[in-house]
Amino acid sequence: MTPPPASLLHGPLLEQAAAFSGNALLLSGPARVGKRAAALAIAGAHNCSGTRGMYGEGCGVCPSCRALAAGAHPDLLIVEPRTTTSTGKAARRRVIPVGAVLAARDKSHEYETHVYEFLEVRPTFRRRVVVVDGAEYLGPEAANALLKLVEEPPHGALFVFLAEDRRSVLPTIQSRSARLDVTPVPDRAVERGLAGLGEDADPALVAFAAGRAGVLEAREAVRAALADAAEFSGALAGGLLAALEAAERLEKRWDATWHPEALRFTWRERPPHERARADTALSALEDALAAYASPSLSFQVFALRLREAFGLEG
Ligand SMILES: [Zn+2]
After folding, report:
1. What's the mean pLDDT in 237-250?
2. What is the pLDDT of residues 85-95, one digit of tens each?
3. CA–centroid distance, residue 179 to ligand 1 (Å)
């Protein structure tokens, strides 16, 4: 089993990171540009015991590479923000609390594995790697608890911080990390990535990806969302009843990660004033869902507002 080609779309970046001997990297770039895949490839490169590839990437066949491909690497810990639930009602603020770092501070047992305890254990392969996906959500307390570990990582561990905007990461973390930019890749690189996965270049998927390698990782969900969005948009023109029925189908299949973006993609070539109104309707739908409004009513209202936006009512 070879490493996912999508992670190799950022070959030069991987080459730099694979040769990195410091304690902490900060990878920044837009959402779904492939930061997570790059971080996993870096973890693979630093633990591979086989013959590494042209960018220093893992061989794909040694025990470490196989563990990584199976999603069960003993030296890899991924830390992500949680949505705070302290009041019992889901708050909107995402945060990485100090409880992610220290088991003793994780009163509500939100995290299964904690950074501090994870790094006390010797690596199974070469180097334990802690990926903080969403470094901008590190609270000051969590960042403070991490600092000593970042400065003197036990057993030579490596930290990989991921952020959409590096300026929103606490300066204490920024200043201790080597910074690398993860940028969108050319369309033909996305096509190559698809070919590497044994798939045909799908023009809609390539256009939707717009160079974001991370979209390849989620290509099944993206394809489904694009198909749903196209079907829904088509139904809007088919009269009020068809639109309301399509809204019901969309509600049942709704994936908050991909459907909003897929919808915007389907109306990207409409006139700017229509797009603006459609975007407003979509934001209102997302707000209503986040506020636990009735989903079926919210989707019906959304369909009606889109018909207005596109001049289809009446
Ligand atoms: Zn290997």
Report:
1. 95
2. 555 455 457 89
3. 25
